[in-house]
Amino acid sequence: MGRVTTTPDAPATSEQSSGVGRSSTREGSRVVIVGGGPGGYEAALVARQLGADVTLVERQGLGGSAVLTDVVPSKTLIATAEWMTLTESAGELGIRPRADEEISYDADFGTVNARVMALANKQSTDIRTRLEREGVRVIDGTGRLNGPHEVIATTRHGQMQLPADVVLLATGARPRELATAQPDGERILTWTQLYHLNEIPERLIVVGSGVTGAEFAGAYNALGADVVLVSSRDRVLPGEDADAAELIEEVFKRRGMEVLSRSRAASARRTEDGVEVELADGRIVTGSHCLIAVGGVPNTEDLGLAEAGVAVNERGHIQVDRVSRSTVRGVYAAGDCTGVLPLASVAAMQGRIAMWHSLGDAVSPLDLGQVSANIFTAPEIATVGIAQHKIDSGEVDGAVTTLPLARNPRAKMLGINEGFVKLFSRRTSGTVIGGVVVAPRASELIFPITLAISNRLTVDQVAGAFTVYPSLSGSIAEAARTLHDARG
């Protein structure tokens, strides 16, 4: 992200809103960060780069939930599950077991989860090593504000007073729990508790069809579990691109998953040998385990926010502007505790922006229009920029084109029959304003579209760039070519 000195859109003094004349204050500025997830540790590295004295307080482990219980473990599990889907096109490609051999694979779940947690712990250790090497003081404990210019850290040895010129709160979020479906860590689980299982659930009921629910439902289905996905909405992934969500739901059903649409879960309870999930209409769904995936709750209790005057919204998220400032001078916040966008990449950028701004460096406010996101189903769904519904509704004057991947020569060679590339452009200028990719490794393919949006490229400029033949990225250039005459 390129950085230029700007005036943030929230009210501020001239000293707050510009880096001019403040670079001399960087050296020795005392920065205290509460929370060691992506928002916290990335902020710490930037602050040290700018010469600040940095202390980071973390209660769980460096990397936070993103590394220890959320992003890294879940995506490692999903990557393992993906291997179980790779042979779906084997027959089409002419690959068959030898006549005298039968090839089949089962997931050793104890080994799978042991590897998942080992990788998460290794990543956490690497982050700690990097921070300490850069001169960040790491305190294992909990932190809370004692007014806007001091943090009280509580460790197993007692309490410490940490004076601060700048405080960054990056305390993350935790799984939302239902009063009628309390997790017990054995049969009724949150996504942080799945990695303690030693065997694949025989029949897993997933309550919630958002990103987390869909990702875990797809992964466990691929690993061999019988999966029931309970969705209160008309389709899975209700907040995502409609065409992408419809395709994923069809894939789920083709792979044997039972999808219960318009079915709200009222409660979940343990039975003698499993669980029962009662739906709002009275139906009972039985299984061996139940995953509750109904969103998150910000970790903003007991932070001393009210006493310090830091405002939160009705859901408990810390209110911040586009340079990560809270409502109190000198107190910033980043990541899931702000409710801006629950992505590790956004948390990290919020943390960096907070340090650039607070320590007087050049900074650009956060631009959510340039944030790419990915859903790690199989195939993956990657998105960036304007959503199609804004174009369909007339809110944005744009053009849309969709190319099925099945017509791409590289996709044909790889036996990819599902997926598409969708590109959006502004009619008046031809500028690329959004895109959707549904494909294996869509998380990699979305990057050229993200670059086009962040650099305000037109579809003609994208179309004029060379792509490798054959390649899946060739469909992005082809989509751009089809929008050449779409200007109004």
Structure characterization notes:
By secondary structure, the protein is an alpha/beta fold. It has 3 domains: 14-66 and 114-175 and 297-368, FAD/NAD(P)-binding domain (3-Layer(bba) Sandwich), CATH 3.50.50.60; 188-294, FAD/NAD(P)-binding domain, CATH 3.50.50; 379-482, FAD/NAD-linked reductase, C-terminal dimerisation domain (Enolase-like, domain 1). The protein has 15 helices and 23 strands. It has helices at 14-17, 38-49, 64-68, 71-83, 109-133, 211-223, 242-254, 305-308, 344-358, 388-392, 409-414, 442-445, 447-454, 459-463, 474-482; strands at 30-34, 53-58, 137-140, 142-145, 150-155, 158-163, 166-169, 173-175, 188-189, 203-207, 226-230, 258-260, 265-270, 275-279, 284-287, 289-292, 296-298, 331-333, 372-375, 380-385, 398-404, 420-426, 432-439. A 5-stranded parallel beta sheet has the order 3-2-1-7-18, covered by helices on one side. A 5-stranded parallel beta sheet has the order 9-16-10-11-12, covered by helices on one side. A hairpin with a 4-residue loop joins β19 (372-375) and β20 (380-385). α2 packs parallel to α9 (344-358). The protein is globular and about 70 Å long. It starts with 13 loop residues before the first helix and ends in a 6-residue tail after the last helix. It comes from Ruania alkalisoli. NAD(+) binds at residues 208-215, 295. Belongs to the class-I pyridine nucleotide-disulfide oxidoreductase family.
Features:
488 residues; alpha/beta; FAD/NAD(P)-binding domain; Enolase-like, domain 1; five-stranded parallel beta sheet; 15 helices
